[in-house]
Amino acid sequence: MAYHTGDRPASVWENRKRFLSIWGLIPEQIIAGKQIHGIGVHPVDSLDLGRGSRQGTAIPDCDALISKSSDVVLAAFSADCLLVYLADVYRGAIAIIHAGWKGLLKEIIGEVIEAFTRELGGKPKSTLAAISPGICFDCFEIGEDVAAAFRNKGWSKFLSPQNNYSHHRYLLNLEEVCRLQLENAGLFQSNIQVSGYCTRCYPDYFYSHRRDGEKTGRMMGFISLKG
């Protein structure tokens, strides 16, 4: 579903067309960013229609999109990272976030909620959030340098040392880090839904960068307002 993994662009376009047609949508409605594991948040509207739909047209340095337009499809791509969907249904505001460990370490969720409130008038207390399938706690192994960075944020409880074979390796619970950031940004715990599926554990369902390597495919997640 993504252009940057070496698949034929025509095949990617056809896959997107088939996938989106299930919901009565078309690829020309897609808006997507060039994801860099950063904290770039971009407000978009109907003037941005099609940015990211074709190869080479994605919004640069963009890991989150926010909008109040009912004719756009906000899209993001992953193969172990989390995708986070936000919707303030009372104010017609939506967002999609690409959240891997680098983005979560930089606290991308808070950046998005701040922009969501400032630019769109969204309110955390009335915002619903959904966290996509992603790599699970038992599968996401990291080194001491990354673990130290998360400890420095005060997030040691999301780490588990792998002492069975090396004290320099840890497991990291990305899902719970993401949930914490949503709650810290003002969302109610009851308004946060988590998929619970692990992309690495289910090869029949999901692509996984950790399992399959750099050339694996990418899933596309999207969010759109009903017109």
What oligomeric state do these chains adopt? single chain
Secondary-structure element sequence?
HEEEEEEHHEEHEEHEHE
Number of helices: 6
Separation of the first and last Cα atoms: 25 Å
Q: Percent range for helical residues?
A: 10-25%
Q: If strands are numbered along the chain, what order do they take across the biggest sheet?
A: 2-3-6-5-7-11
CATH class assignment: Alpha Beta
Main attributes of the structure:
227 residues, alpha/beta, CNF1/YfiH-like putative cysteine hydrolases, six-stranded mixed beta sheet, three-stranded mixed beta sheet, 6 helices, 12 strands
What does this entry look like structurally?
The protein has 227 residues and is of the alpha/beta class. It has one domain (9-135, 187-223): CNF1/YfiH-like putative cysteine hydrolases, CATH 3.60.140.10. It has helices at 9-21, 101-105, 108-120, 144-152, 174-184, 209-212, and strands spanning 30-32, 41-44, 64-67, 73-78, 82-88, 93-99, 127-131, 141-143, 159-161, 169-172, 192-194, 219-223. The strands form three sheets. A six-stranded mixed sheet has the order 2-3-6-5-7-11. A three-stranded mixed sheet has the order 1-4-12, with no helix packed on it. It is globular, with a radius of gyration of 17 Å. The two termini are 25 Å apart.
